[in-house]
Write the structure tokens for this entry.
Amino acid sequence: MNKLQRERKDDETVLLINQLKYGVWLLGVTAWLFAIVERIIAVAACTYFSKEIFQTLIICLFLITWLYLQPETNQAPVSLRSSHIISQEYILPYPYLCQIYHLLNLKHLETIHNFSLNNLKINSITQVQTTSQGGIIKFQTSLDSPINALRMWRSKSVEVDLILHNPYTVELSIPVYNQKRMVVLFNVLPLTKNEHYFFIDIYGDLQWWIKPLMKVLLHFAAAITLFEDLPYLRALSERNIENLFHSHKSSSHETMYLYNRYIELCNT
Ligand SMILES: [Fe+2]
């Protein structure tokens, strides 16, 4: 069993434990509600109320405490959750490695997304960094066209981060105006050999009055970019994608730094 398989096994175990905790919590809620209903019936049936009312209030207190003990299912940090803008999820009929390869290939932003990103250019790689479960690549981008929809929230030339957090999570972090950033988190979950779940979550600090409009725009933008990616993912699925990751062959191009890092992780 290689490192990736071990990590996937660990993830599945954590998921199972979380589901178990949630199941126990739900069982507890049901039990407390049942006890409250039983005490209310007892109160209604008795002529001497004080003991039953006191017991009902105590059980209500336990129920409220129990509700506060709900196990955490959303693992995102609180600061990130408060800046959540949109989520989308898809089941795609391609092996998950096609999605990973696509996400780690910087150059496809210029070619495949030429329309949606409106002539975005990758000028240079400014920094690369290895982390324990992935890596970070920083690159300078510019918007060639003077009339560009992306100019609404970003400068002409900015340094973008692409982060491989773990073998299933990739983050794209883009600086926007006023020292803020727009964060796009991509999560991939293998479903079968030839299918995978694909989750897109977008985060950003937005004023309350602009958030509804941005939600609509970002839903539209995320759907368009996915639509653009489909022929590319299909083409990748027609190649022997397993070989691309397990053949120990890495790309010499610096834009493929994270892909090379992924291969390194696959083979340790
Ligand atoms: Fe893409």
Observations:
- The pocket of fe (ii) ion is lined by residues 102, 108, 112-113, 225, 229 (CB under 6 Å).
